[in-house]
Amino acid sequence: MSDTMRAIAVKGGKGPATALFVDTIPRPVAAPGQALVKIRAFGLNRMDLLQREGLYPVPPQAPETIGVEFSGVIEGFGEGTGADFRVGDEVFGLAYGGAYAEYIAVSTKMLVHKPAELSWEEAAGVPETWITASQALFLIGEFQEGQSVLWHAGASSVSISGIQLAKAAGAKAIYATAGSQEKIDFLEKELGVTAAFNYRTQDWAKEIQKATGGAGVNLTVDFVGGTYFQGNLDVAARDGRVVLLGLMGGGKLPDGVNIAPLLMKRIRVEGSTLRSRDEDYQGRLRDTLVSHALPKFQDRTFRVFVEKVMPWEQIVQAHQLLESNSTKGKIICVL
């Protein structure tokens, strides 16, 4: 086996999508507790765009190469590793980085056996999105059967995953926001949300208040941040929770934000990330995914929505497509 491999790099270390190119770099070596995986496909995420631009705080243990989710075949192990896996096993997994490459060295705590029912492309779109959605819904949001939930960026991969998880967990009502009628139709007709609202043409906060008879929602999962903060407080039910996963709308609050609902409705707002968590924490989330979601992938109750599959040599176009905000579901690159 060669001691080098091809991987996606960024000219100058950071820049626009056009700075991405296929480079040759040293092939990783699996350390104790790690497997060496030959990658078949990898998924794109918004954090990849931020990392490419030098705007994402990368964990110290992450390699320079972008990418956190992948599917592939195990080719070897670090010393003393491999109790639950064997060479030749088909797997998918979550990594701190390095997935835009031919090989990756990753902790076996972050690997899952790929079921035959999932394609390489579908499997590569599971780890980051479904684990993030599970974490937000159950661990942080403490979602319970019979509650209501609002997913912002409803046609994003995490929200698509979360909507399916909430339905399976017995949500009383599921609401979503999105930026086009096409996405609204997708959310209502294909995913079956209770109602979706176009944030470009509707006052989503007022519409949700109307739809809930003023009661509000028990849990909101938000990727937007500053510009949605007031609306999130307004639509929260008493003892409601807001889980903040992103800052697409900025990290600063607009003038005039009224935080009184935090007190009057006893709202809890909590931010969370996944990539900065330690391996044991991510391993526990992996186990939750395996026990609760994997059987539903196998019987096709849960679906991985793949918008487009592209050869990895078209990584520039793949990043540009993700930046366009026009997609519903995952963009997957194949090697």
UniProtKB/TrEMBL annotation:
Keywords: NADP, Oxidoreductase. InterPro entries: ADH-like_C, ADH-like_N, ER, GroES-like_sf, NAD(P)-bd_dom_sf, Quinone_OxRdtase_PIG3. Coiled coil: none annotated. Residues 15-333 form the Enoyl reductase (ER) domain. GO terms for molecular function: NADPH binding; oxidoreductase activity, acting on NAD(P)H. This is Quinone oxidoreductase. It comes from Penicillium alfredii.
